[in-house]
Amino acid sequence: MKKARILIVDDEEDLCEILKFNLEGEGFEVDEAYSAEDAITKRLDKYDLLLLDVMMGKMSGFKLAEKIRKERGSTIPIIFLTAKDTKNDTLTGFSIGADDYISKPFSIKEVVARVNAVLNRTTGKYAGEQIINVEGMEFDLNKKKLIIDNKSIYLTRKEFEILQLLIENQGRIFSREEVLNYVCKYETVVTTRTVDVNIARIRKKMGKYGKFVRSRTGYGYYFDIQ
Amino acid sequence: MKKARILIVDDEEDLCEILKFNLEGEGFEVDEAYSAEDAITKRLDKYDLLLLDVMMGKMSGFKLAEKIRKERGSTIPIIFLTAKDTKNDTLTGFSIGADDYISKPFSIKEVVARVNAVLNRTTGKYAGEQIINVEGMEFDLNKKKLIIDNKSIYLTRKEFEILQLLIENQGRIFSREEVLNYVCKYETVVTTRTVDVNIARIRKKMGKYGKFVRSRTGYGYYFDIQ
DNA sequence: AACGTTTGTAACAATTTTGTAGCAAACCTG
DNA sequence: CAGGTTTGCTACAAAATTGTTACAAACGTT
User: Fold this and answer.
1) What percent of chain A has pLDDT over 90?
2) Which domain does B164 fall in, by range?
3) How far is the CA of A163 from the C1' of D19 (A)?
4) pLDDT by residue (tens digit) across A80-132?
5) Looking at the structure, do residues A135 and A123 belong to the same domain, yes or no?
6) How many interface pairs between A and B have CB atoms less than 8 angstroms apart?
7) What does strand C contact on the protein, if contact means CB under 7 A?
8) Mean pLDDT over all residues of chain A?
9) What is the CA radius of gyration of chain B?
10) B8, B10, B21, B132: which to substitute to probe chain A, counting the most A Cβ within 10 Å?
11) At B194, which CATH number?
């Protein structure tokens, strides 16, 4: 699964570092900007989520957010970080919404939890990309297709399942029986030779990458890039 | 569509900013006033809805509301925000003619939902905008319709939900089971083939854009503009 | 209850996928 | 290298999936 990319915008560099370290530990890709002006120079469409400090030097997090939403028309989810206002701690009550709102001081655990929640909500439980990359070839589990040289290669269900089995167990050899058992679990019995035909079809569709789908006479098929 | 204009009156400036940001994100036009006195100086008839904090410096939200209703004879819908959730306050609010009543701490989502609800109830014609644009085709989440070549295409609820699922997860393939599960979560069991019929109806209504709703035999349906 | 609308089902046609058979090519073993 | 075995490939047929239509049931409104 593709990692979500997060941009932290906060003038407290120490805080940025702590957040970055912890979010990276959770498997996210994290960039930092130490001011709103700095953030604007970045290609924001690269990111899946923004963590914005509300109180920063010249331009506040709100202004930045407004700019991003209005001028760039971006719908990127935003979580605001704000210093806890002792006068009204009602702000701590903000939790759910189109965006989110976390008051300082906050626990790292809390931030991670909210980040995950927002990403799940905004990208939908379906949207997490699931792409296996092999030698410049993309194997997209959600879109059920290969991307080779920027071209989409559509595999049928059986083809896709066989290739998935082989790619997810790179190097391991599967006998025709094993492949059939994996692909046609509860279906009527078919000749083991059908595997050959499907392999041939897969190889053909894969073009120059077809050679990575290999056979060992007497054993079966496997996927390997060597 | 005319945007609804909202005035937020609250002395917590941060809270105002958050509400403003999120309501604007929903397509509303939003102004702020940080005190009742400040609000009075504004031309209130410009607005379609007031969000009033009950607890503010000198003049409370209730007083302000009374003033507006009695002295100006305005019937503008009002939603009160309050820190306390006591029955007394609630009753006071409704006797003045509050349209809704939200206790802090509250979620942004909740506020937005209530704002939409009140506006729909009172004017019927306003709502925050939520429009997805794809290839010159507008997909209006609030009005549950498509706009194609400046013409409104009205989708039924099921049709709309299916299309929304597909469009919001562009490229990803959904099996009939997944689509059904998403659209008919709590309903009686139906044939997976009903999805086909709904897809057909959606395609028909979408005219030249219908082709973007695609199928992959063995997998299901997906939306893609390629 | 009567009406229009939405949604589901069944049946058939059209399309795509999948399996089989047969032959050619490659592989293995002695 | 000769023979049997395994694998690659192609065309065709069978099976499965999808598109489409007409009709019926369910729903909501007046």
Assistant:
1) 30
2) 131-223
3) 29
4) 776 544 333 333 333 222 345 454 555 566 677 667 656 755 555 544 567 88
5) no
6) 88
7) A 154, 156-159, 184, 187, 190-191, 193-194, 197-198, 201, 216-218; B 154, 156-159, 184, 187, 190-191, 193-194, 197-198, 201, 216-218
8) 77
9) 22
10) B21
11) 1.10.10.10
Residue type, B91: L
Report how far apart, in Å, the C-alpha atoms of A48 and of each of A2, A14, A117, A126, B19 are: 11, 23, 13, 15, 22
Angle at A183 (CA atoms; ends A197, A148), nearest 5 degrees:
65
d(CA A128, CA A120): 8
**Does residue A181 have a pLDDT over 70?**
yes
Q: What is the model's pLDDT at position A19? A: 83
CATH number of domain containing A73 = 3.40.50.2300
Residue given tokens 């044939």 in the structure block:
B191
B113 and B76 both lie in a single domain: yes
End-to-end CA distance of chain B: 30
Q: What is the pLDDT of residue A80?
A: 76
**Positions in chain C where some atom is under 7 Å from a protein CB:** 5-11, 15-22, 27-28
pLDDT < 70 positions in chain B: 1-2, 55-59, 61, 72-73, 82-110, 113, 117, 120-130, 184-189
Give B173→chain A minimum CA distance, Å.
5
